[in-house]
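To assess whether the prediction recovers the assembly geometry, we first specified each molecular entity separately, as shown.
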Amino acid sequence: MQEKQAPDPLAERILGARLGRPVRPGEIVAVEVDRIMAHDGSGPTAARALERHGIGHLRGAERAVIVFDHYYPPASEREAELHSVARAFAAQYGIPVLAGVGISHQVLPERGLLAPGTVFVGGDSHSCTAGAFGVLGIGLGATDVAGVLASGHVWLEVPETVRIRLEGSLGPGVGGQDLILHILGLVGTSGALGKAVEFVGPAIEGLEIADRMKLANHTVEMGAVAGLVGVDSRCLAWLEDRGADVSQADVAAHDPVGDGADFEVHLDQVEPLIALPSRPDQVAPLGTAPDAKVDQVFIGSCAGGRLEDLRVAARVLDGEQIHPGLRLLIGPASAEVLDAAMADGTLGILLKAGATLLPPGCGACLGRLGTLGAGEVAVATQNRNFVGRAGSSSSRLYLASPATAARAALTGRIPRETAS
Amino acid sequence: MKVTGRIFKLPPDHRDDVNTDVIIAGRHLRVPEDELARHAFENVMPDFHEQIEGHSILVAGRNMGCGSSREQAPKALLGCGIRLVIAESFGNIFYRNAVNLGLGVLVLPDPSALDRLEGGREATVDLASGVVEIDGGPTLEAQPVAEHVMRILSAGGLLPLLKKDPDALL
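The predicted structure of the complete assembly is given in tokenized form:
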């Protein structure tokens, strides 16, 4: 009897399908890009660079979209100028602008702009989030995006794949953010350096789309070029609902067996975790976190600002008041998330508890809003807690699930246990 | 393509997993590009822009430039006069950004070889061959820079290359 083999890694399947021939890790390929995204930081920089170098023919323009998510609405003349530059560039090349409707990584899939089995590049490191939909999503800097706009292609070394097999189901009070922090602790910040991460195994089918997006989103914190979750029927239904092109979805089919994976994760064994300052992979069980007064809680970002996250927070805060003197900032990942949270009462609960609503977008993640002062401590559902990430170099950021973050908002201290 | 200059070695506690937030903090992303240099490494080494004067080769450790895709990180280093970064390994996006902007990058995967690159020494580095000649010895062998990456660097960056030939990397 022939031994059953695991399917080829998803990244290689997608690249192979795009190139019409098998690829192998380590070879350099140039592949046509199906979708290109720039935001209000990378977009204006790319526009100015193209102009400065006299490049005016953009083969990729009709596949491009510009999303204003970092600096919307502008809070300074310089930010307003970035938007003017981006809008003029977009008008010149007929590129749509999505302004103030949320974070690119949320808005693109919501609007059916990502197609499974295809290649996406975005001028933002968390473009790997697209991998939740079987899309090879690659984060790039602004000049790289300018190059892709010009040529319509991206060059890359075909990455090796680190396969992470998930089995079982999460226990009560444990969320997708705890799961990915657990994995980040296992793999480490350079554990997947230059590689693709693929999540495989039987537990995937039980994970909500929002949790899959958390998984893919954090792969860049492991050093990965891309993070991928294969397409199953739940993902397909979600995408079809959004009008996405699913004609290439077969290429990106999920591997439910996951034989021969590099890491094995039993979801039942995952406990609530918190990432200590100032490394996302420096994770500790809640019970062992040091006690500290908390000045700000941020529930938002491309990691933890979806409807599911806000609902978890609302369950903890329903009928309660946040700790006096503490700021609780809610940053819906998109206008659609905000709309749904208004409709189902989630937002009302959070606001009554004392939360402050931020506009849909990147919110407090990079310290432009909810800037942390000297010595301040924050708990956030975002993905990065680097030194000075959200303000003062002496501020300290802890990363945790929305349940843990909401608990911190109630007690004003780093939680030692999950909300009951 | 050769780079000759004095080595600046990042201190041990800021040598590995240097993220781009540390290289240039979020609050400085919107400053004019010629002001980036003076804010390089500000959050962890406030006087970096003074210390770096007279050095053009920066030596880091593992996973140099991880995190955010902000291109202001390599721009800040270029503004400091750095022409080449040598590291045990690089964050993928930082590596590409550096190359695209004409900042040299070299992978020296052997940590003991990396140890021999002492701060303050002069060195001449040939990127295509990966040979690092330290003045007064020793000579180290890093990974040769891949051919297509050399083409970008030799053109002075990605867009100068694509301006000359839009199909250059296809």
